[in-house]
Specification:
Layout: E1 11-15, H1 20-30, E2 36-40, H2 52-68, E3 73-76, H3 79-84, H4 86-97, E4 102-104, H5 108-111, E5 122-127, H6 129-134, H7 136-144, E6 149-154, H8 158-163, H9 170-186, E7 192-196, H10 204-210, E8 216-218, H11 220-234, H12 236-239, E9 248-252, H13 256-266, E10 274-275
Bound molecules: D-glutamic acid.
D-glutamic acid binds at residues 15-17, 19, 45-48, 78-80, 128, 131, 159, 197-199.
Length: 279
Amino acid sequence: MRNTMQPLHPIGIFDSGYGGLTVMKEILKELPDYDYLYLGDNARAPYGPRSFESVYHYTVEAVRWFFDRGSHLVILACNTASSKALRTIQQKDLPRIDPARRVLGVLRPVTEQAGSYTKTGHIGILGTVGTVESQSYPIEIQKFFPDITVTQEACPLWVPLVENCEHESPGADYFIKKHIDNLLRKDPEIDALILGCTHYPLLINKIRRFLPPSVQIISQGTLVARSLADYLERHREIMAQCSKSGIYKYCTTDSAEVFDSQARIFMDETTRSDRVTLP
Ligand code: DGL
C-alpha cells in the first residue's frame, strides 16, 4: 500500500468505478515504479447503460480532473468510456485543453493483437450494452484485420453480479451460460474471445467452464499493461513527464469506505481512498 502521499505527475487511471482496478493490477505488475492516481466515478457508475453524451461528458470531466492534478498521461481503463468517449477526447478536446498530454484507452492494445489469437478468423466480444452498441470493437478490429468476422454479445447483468459479490455463486452460472450460448449460437466458429469489460476477468473461471476448450480467452489487462510499457519506451517525451516514486493513490466520487472494501474484490493492493468531487 503506497498510497499516502500526493504523487507529483502520476499516470492517471480512470474507470466508472472499481473495474479499472483489474487493469491497474496488471499495469502495476508491469510498471511498478511509476506514480499512479486512480479515479473511480462510483457516484455515477455504471456507465454501461448510459448514453453516449453522458459517458463522454463524465469522461471529459475526469480527464480534466487528472490534468489538474499533474497527470500528463491518462488511461481510460474502462471499456465503455474508451468506446464512447476516447476518440472525441483525442480528436476534439485534447488539442484544445493541452496538445502535449495524452489520453489512451483499453481497446487498441487488444484489437491490434486480436488477429494473432484466431485460426478460424472468427472473434467474439463480450461487453456492456454501451460498448457493444458503440460498435467500437468491430470497427477497430476491422482496421487491423479486415478479413476477421467479429460477433458481439452484451451481458448487462455480469457487472452487477460482480459488484454484489455473486460472481462465484451458483446463481451466476445461469447468466454466464446464457450469454456464452447466445454468442456461440450467433457464430459457432468463434475460437478467440475478448472480455471487453473490466469486470469480466473476475468471472473467468465460470466463463471457461461454459466455453468449448477450443476457444481462447484474450486477457485485456495483460495486453494493456504491455502496450503501456511499449508506448512509454516509444514516447520518451511522455515518459519524461511521468513521475517515478512508486506512489499509488486512489480516489472515488462516492464513499471512500465502500470503495476500499469493494476494491478488495478487484485487486490485491489495500487501498485507502479519498472521496473527491467532479468536475
Ligand atoms: N468499467 C466498465 C467497462 O469496462 C464496466 C462497468 C460499467 O458499466 O460502468 O465497460
